[in-house]
Design a protein that fits this description.
single chain, flat
Length: about 110
Amino acid sequence: MSGQQHSAVNEQEKHHKHEGPKKHIIGFIMSILLTIIAFAMVAAGEINTTFIYLFLVLMACVQVFIQMGFWMHMKDRGHLYPIIGILMGVFVVFTIVIMAEYWAWW
């Protein structure tokens, strides 16, 4: 086998290497911890309601990034088009919500 063919085979093996359950377990534990933290904030009841709402939205955003990275493998190479599609969808949804609020307000 020539050096160039051997290099191509090694590159292909690196690209299709199986991660194993370690990263899934880490992602699962992080998701559970974020859920417990959010539940504890709400269950405390003595915290400002506005702060709790903002905190829950922040926790939801962090949870989305964890789900995208660990479960949907968006952190891996080759996922540019799905990421662009998701960002475009988020942009469209935010635009619709903002325009609906603007329309209802006036």
